[in-house]
TrEMBL record:
The keyword Iron-sulfur does not apply. This is LysR family transcriptional regulator. Belongs to the LysR transcriptional regulatory family. Residues 7-57 form the HTH lysR-type domain. Keywords: DNA-binding, Transcription, Transcription regulation. The lineage of its organism: Bacteria, Bacillati, Bacillota, Bacilli, Bacillales. It comes from Paenibacillus septentrionalis. InterPro entries: LysR_HTH_N, LysR_subst-bd, WH-like_DNA-bd_sf, WH_DNA-bd_sf. PROSITE patterns: HTH_LYSR (PS50931). The keyword Nucleotide-binding does not apply. Transmembrane segments: none annotated.
Amino acid sequence: MNEAYPIFKCIVEQSSMNKAAQLLNLSQPALSRKIAKLEEELGAPLFRRIGKRLELTRIGQLTYDYAIEAERLHRRYMQTVAEFKETGRSSLTIGASLTTLQSTLPDLIALLQETHPEIDIKAVTGKTHEVVNYVKEHKVDIAVIASRLDDPHVQCTPLFDDHLILAMPRALITDEQRLIQLQDLNDIPMILFTKGTWYRLLTDELFEQYQLTPEIRMEIDSFEAILRLLHTFRAGALLPKSYLRQQLMADNDLVTYHIPQLEATKRTTSLIHADPNILDAAVRSCIYEIATHYQKRT
């Protein structure tokens, strides 16, 4: 941190060059030279002298505000460095249920790589109950699952709600403004997730409830493969809304349709972890960044 800014801040708060010089253990000429150099760097005066009183210029006020913020950030930075040195943490292990592996985990890792570039991130996947046990057994630091969790041994923070929507190749659509009803799925060939996956369970329950029997062209558990194969099989697919971002749809020349009944397939993606009081500072910081990020999105 440039030493001129805390010196300048001290002068402002003492309202006197002489008092500031005594407090900083500097001679007044040395103090004046440092302020003169800062004014030269900024290309503007910081003070106006009104008799024996110093008054901040507009640039001086902006510089004082900056000095306060810079001091706060520097203090926070040094505290974080001290905590990292104390814990020796250089890695973070994230657990992810199979459902969140393709839809949420990539974004979450990208976020943490941006906000915590000093941490090496590792990931472990498994079924939801396995990932919950990983948290309880401290095999992972945090985890994301596609449900809410009520467990006294695990803390759960809901991140966002999601539901299935219909995605289809643009080439199959004659009128993009046409409303598609749920019963229309009977006439649309479909690519579904493989049996046993969370999304397939939702889909099967939906088909059973509304007595739908669409033609199933293929079953697969890869989001990316489904998108690529929609054109090949001239089919549609029910995919989570959170995964179907605008750019992804454009890159694959797909369109989406919102069907009201599909909102019943809603599920909540949550972040789970152990009691924060037993986690080190780096993990707590990551938890805070993730929760804040998704709160802003929603």
